[in-house]
Every structure is written in C-alpha cells, then in structure tokens.
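Render this sequence as a predicted structure.
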Amino acid sequence: MNISRISIDGLILSIKCLVEKVNYIKSRYCNMENSNNDDKWLCQLMWAIGFVLLVMMLSAFIVIKLIEGWDHRGQFGDLFGVVNALFSGLAFAGLIITIRQQHIDLKYQHQAIEQTNQEMQNQTAEFDKQNETLRIQRFENTFFKMLEVQQSIVNDLYAGDSHSQWVDENSADGAYSKKEISIQDEYRGRNLFYYVFIICNHAIENSFLDGTTMVSGLSTVIKRRGKERFDDYMTTTMFDHYFRHLYTILRFISENEWLGADKQYKYATFVRATLSRYELIMLYYNGFFHPKMKKMMEQYCLLNNIRKDLLPMSYEYYVFLREQGVSKEDLRDAHFSIGDFEYYLTDDENDDTRYHLSAFFSKGELDKGHALLNRWRTFIKDKKS
C-alpha cells in the first residue's frame, strides 16, 4: 500500500515537473507570431505531451478520489501497467526536448554572435572611415599650407629696371627743347614672368658685328638663337626657388598614392588654377631642362591652360620648317599655331625631347590631342613630298 502511495505521489510529482518544463518551453518558443519552423515542431510536440499529461492526471484523479482502498486501487493500477512504459517514453521525450532546446539555444547564440560580429564590422568600417577622414585632413593641411608658401614665393619675386624717355622742356627764355630722363621700373610677383620673357634685355651673339646685341626678353632669344639658350641667362635664376617649391608640391601629391589617381589629379588642378599665362610659358621652356619637373607636368596635365599663341617660334623649329618647305602662312592656312606647340608634341612617353600629349590634354581630351598630332604629321609629310 505504501509503495502504491509512493508511486502515485511520484507520478504526480513527475507530472508537475514535466508540466513546468512544458509551460517553460511553451512560453519561450510557442509564440506562433515569432516562431520559426523549428519552434513550431517543438510546440506541436508540447501539445501532444500535454494531452498525455491530461490523461495521466485524470487517471490519478480517478484512482485517488473514486476508488476506495489501496487494494482496489492497486488492481486498477495493474490495468494501467503500461504507465511505466509511458513514463519511460516521457523521460525519453523529455531528453529529446532538452536536446532540442539546447540546439535552439545554440542557434540563437550563433545568431547573437553573428550579430555581434556584424556590429564589430560596422564599427571597424566606421573607424576606417574616420581614419580616412583624418588622413585626408592631415594631407590637406599640409597641401594648402604649401600653396600658401608658393604664393608667398611669388609675391616676393622682384626686379628693378629703368628706361630712358625724352620729354619736352621749356627754358626760361621760352626756347623749346627735349630732355632725356631715366624712369625707374619695378616688376613684382607674377609681373616678373612677363618682364623676363618679353621686356628684359638679353645679350645674344652678333656674328656681323663680332660682338653682342641686346634683344628684348627671352622670347626673342628663343626666336633668334633657339630654345636651348633659354637656361643660359641669369634672369632665369630669379625663379629657381619658385620652380623648386612648385616641383615639391607636385611630388608631395604624387607620393601620397593612397589618395588614388583621381584625387591626386584633383589636387593638382588646384595648383594649375594658380598659374598665370606667362608662368605657364616659363614652365613650358623650363621643363626641357628639368626632366623630373617635365614628367610631373605631363602626369597632371599642368599645361592644359597654356596660351599657344604666346609661344614663340624657336630657331630650331624655324630651321625645321625651312627644310620642309613650310612657311608661316602655310601653318596659318592649315590652322596650326605659329609657335612651338605642335613641333614639340609627341605621343611617345619615353621621348624626353618633347612634351607628351598628357601635359596639355586631360584624359578625356587625349583623343583630341592625338587627332591634332596626326593631322600635323600628315601636313608636314605632304609638304615634304
């Protein structure tokens, strides 16, 4: 009798524990609105177990309340000996539920880990973006400071000169006469480029006079003696600091490869925008004597805005045209420039004696440059034949 009592009590206690387990799983996983297929399978199992539990509880109620005496109850219990097997089945079901629950928990943990990893990746991307922004800020601080220094160098450029001028003079007795006076001239900043290239006197050899003749500006020197004489005069040394620092700016852009070609080109356009027309002319001829600077100008299309009509016809170009039987009028009729532009163009990147098309034409304009160069070559070839 005591054993039967204990069995019934154990049954009730086991049922209570299993009910608590079912209720926990049901409350956690059986919200049908949020559950997935795995959870729905588990919920269906819970409903089946719940039905079995209901039958067992009903049986226990019948045994305790409706059957008197433990002997009769025992006989009634013997009719349900299968309950022991049912207990075993429920235990096995509980084991499956526990394993399934652990599987689902692990799945949720995996999802949580993936979410954490994604958040970490987002944080890393944000950090990289902030780091890139700081890197650009440091670059720009240095770059624009260098532009300020370049402008300061330009502002410090200076040369003084004088020229004679005849003026009318009236004497005390009313006589009329002319008097020669000296007028002082000053050239500052970017005006110095114009002064040196157009006005400043330069001595050139004069074979007829067995001496020298003074001519105005380096442009005349280039016309009469050739572009190879451009760097022979002290006047070009006034721009040494200017040319060196300008090269330093372009090299600074080139060395920061992490910017990418497009951004490097964009910053180079800021430099190009500061150059006046006679700065570009002086840069053009200076590049023939400084290959590194010439490469930078080609890389960043620094001569894109050059005024071709301001380029003189060098003595070398003049001799070449004369040998080909081409006159200035022929060039005008064919709509070519009279100066050195087409003659010193090339599409050969290894030709250091001429400027590559990229110095004058941007990437989007290179086809236009190739068309011009091919047309000029065809023109010269036809004239020669």
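Summary. The radius of gyration is 48 Å. Strands lie at 158-170, 176-188, 201-206, 211-216, 345-346, 355-356.
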